[in-house]
Amino acid sequence: MAATGKRSLLAQGLIMTEELANHYRRIIQGLGEDPDREGLRDTPRRAAKAMQFLNRGYTQRLEEIINGAVFASETDEMVLVKDIELYSMCEHHLLPFIGKCHIAYLPNGKVLGLSKFARIVDMYARRMQIQENLTRQIAEAVQQVTEARGVAVVIEARHLCMMMRGVEKQNSSMTSSVMLGAFRENQPTRQEFLTLVNGR
Known about the structure:
alpha+beta, 5-stranded mixed beta sheet, two-stranded antiparallel ribbon, 8 helices, 24% strand
């Protein structure tokens, strides 16, 4: 990218940060606080930058994060990646949900570089959404990239919108799953995956 193009993107990013910071300043005022007191003076800008970081998945593209890391392989047995930690933002209350993701796939002539599973999870998790949709997005992305015979994804997460407010149930958690291809059609394959996930 040309230097002028980089400067333009940087300027756009700074303008967006300042716009978000102004909104946070008004929110702080609306809650009855003084945004000019010492402890809060820089909070609007810090909060704006934090929100941009927490939602950086909107600026990422699947092709870019995979970056060609799909390799030919004769492996046709299940590949499972467990306990990929994730941090996402509930679109209903803008509070985080935190958990872990388990991904399995049945290769069909090619395999995906290990670190790319974490990158896929991060790209979709760093957006405002609900857990059910996040689970499907990850599964469909892995299917698209690998063209596997089947993909399975399970997410276990704790939601601060349920823990800190509303019903305030601190020990609650949610599990969601999506099964594609052979994992959906073949009961023994699905059961093998679930046994491996729950076996720890």
